[in-house]
Amino acid sequence: MNPMPVFKVIALAAALLSPLSLSAQERLRQATIIVGSPAGGATDKLARMYADALKQRFANTVIVENRPGAGGILAYEYVKNSPQKDGSITFLSPAYPLTISPHVVRNLPYDTLKDFMPVGIAARSTMTYAVGPAVPANIRTMEAYLQWCRDNPKQALYAAQTGSSQHLLGSILALTSKVRLENVSYKGDAPAMQDLLGGHIPAVVLPIASAIPMHKAGQIRVLAVASAKPSRYLPDIQTFQDMDYKDILFQDWLGVFAPAGTSPEAVRQMNLAMADAARSEQGQAALTNLGFTPEIVTPEVFAELVRADYRRYGVLVERTRFRETFEKSSGQ
Q1: Burial (0-12, 13-18, 19+ Cβ within 10 Å), 106
Q2: Is residue 164 part of a domain?
Q3: Upper half-sphere CA count for residue 325 (Cβ side, 13 Å)
Q4: How confident is the model at residue 332 (pLDDT cuts 50, 70, 90)?
Q5: Are 90 and 145 found together in one domain?
Q6: Residue 94 is assigned to a structural domain of this protein
Q7: Are residues 185 and 133 in the same domain?
Q8: Are residues 108 and 140 in the same domain?
Q9: Is residue 11 located within the same domain as residue 98?
Q10: In whole angstroms, how far apart are CA 164 and each of 98, 170, 213, 317, 327?
């Protein structure tokens, strides 16, 4: 669900009228952005871009700390329990640990809607389905790939972090195509990509930001993108919508969150600093280079989007019985 244009206009106007950066007296000495995945992946790269951009805009020093494991749970629980409520501790996350995981993981140690304060959208992205050297070079369409999987059922494997939106995409594709695709779980995009390039796993579901450079270099073949329209980064690649897989639509945000109880003023100042960074020439170039789409909204609008996506994915998880798939994959 995308915000109404009027919200974007209001957010942009507010940002333009605000100071571009805090004074030295107002800035935090140090801020930390937690990432729940290993270094080198798309989320990590985006976090580091913002960390660099927020220096002198929000805090004197901004660092990125990787806390991978358990599908992001370790990172988000750490932020939830942080006593720091001045904006100095936040996390940058893709949507799924906050909008999908709550519907599939039993006894999740955080509540998306109660334990965190949405700060702002860092970017939007979509997903891709890609194959590597383990798949014959003549396989260049999703139709041909699915037939290859039918003919080679032991190779009908794809890499995705268990319980993630990538995993959900693969599950929906398996359900609707009636091909028994099996998920092989990875902790993040970077290790999955290493095994894909090494021929240890035939296919992978990746954020488009991670897929673009490898596809353009000819190291992998992107067979489909999960956006409503062809991506401007990969305009020649079909969408799942074109193939009539209507439920495979992932145009999710990556967002920054603070622990509940964080000062609203600190949240507002970080949101404005993020907007300033995203609008800057350097920020726009970095987002384009990473394959992300910028989106500037207020914390209030972002909170509405989080609630809407939380509900939407809850319905999709129930309809596709993804919780059962997740529990089978994770051995629960």
Answers
A1: exposed
A2: yes
A3: 28
A4: low
A5: no
A6: yes
A7: yes
A8: no
A9: yes
A10: 10, 10, 22, 11, 13
Enter the tokens of residue 119: 């700060």
Pairing of strands 203-207, 157-160: parallel
What is the separation of C-alpha 172 from the centre of its chain, rounded to a whole number of angstroms? 18
Pairing of strands 59-66, 182-185: unpaired
Instruction: Give me the pLDDT at residue 196, please.
Output: 96
Give me the pLDDT at residue 97, please. Answer: 92
The DSSP element (H or E) to which 221 belongs, if any, is strand 221-225
Domain range enclosing 184:
127-249
Residue of 198, 201, 187 lying closest to 129 (CA atoms): 201
- 217 and 267 housed in the same domain: no
Q: Is the pTM of the predicted complex or chain greater than 0.70?
A: yes
Q: What pairs with residue 204 in β-bridges?
A: 130, 159
- Reference 80, options 37, 122, 111, 43; nearest CA is 111
- As a whole number of angstroms, the distance between CA 157 and CA 141 comes to 16
**pLDDT for the residue numbered 3:** 44
Domain CATH number, residue 84? 3.40.190.150
Contact criterion met (CB below 8 Å) for 105 and 71: yes
Question: Residue 168 class from Cβ within 10 Å (0-12 exposed, 13-18 middle, 19+ buried)?
Answer: buried
C-alpha–C-alpha distance, residues 253 and 125, integer Å: 6
303-331 in b/e burial notation, b at 16+ Cβ within 10 A?
bbbbeebbeebeebbeebebbebbeebee
Q: Which residues pair with 207 in a beta bridge?
A: 127
CB 248 within 8 A of CB 240: yes
Q: How far is it, in rounded angstroms, from Cα 178 to Cα 259?
A: 42
Closest CA to 169 of 96, 97, 103, 109: 96
DSSP 2: P
- Can you say whether the dihedral through the CA atoms of 12, 19, 289, 208 is positive or negative? negative
pLDDT digits (tens, 9 = 90+) for 17-38: 344 455 555 789 999 999 998 8
**Does the residue 325 lie in any domain?**
no
